[in-house]
Design brief:
Blueprint lengths: L2 H15 L7 H11 L5 H16 L1 H10 L11 H16 L5 H15 L4 H13 L1
Helix pairs in contact: 1-3, 1-5, 4-5, 5-6, 5-7, 6-7
Length: 132
Amino acid sequence: MKRSEIREHIFKILFGTEFNKNDEMPEQLEHYCAEMEGAEEKEIAYIKDKVGRIAERTEEIDSLINSHTTGWKTSRMNKVDLTILRLAVYEMKWDEEVPTGVAINEAVELAKRYSGDEGPSFVNGVLAKLAE
């Protein structure tokens, strides 16, 4: 599985956290991973680990996002863009395996696939400010 595919699965799982209670997420994560076709055990373990690490830092990530946006706090953002930003900010700040430029490019690609017309430029703008 390519890194971009793994990232997309992480995005989808994180997006689901917006609609499930915290105590439901372990079961939801297991269901999601059981349905992934062609995923190796090490890839599933990586996905679960990264989802957990991002979830642990959500407040800190949101604070960073809020400090780099004007007029768009996380509470007002659509859930797709917010989830993409959370994933990218985590990768930029705490995942040493992912270069900042790659995190931004991949986030913009996710926004092109899952967000509205304004999503890619919004995501790119927020992440560019964070990268400064």
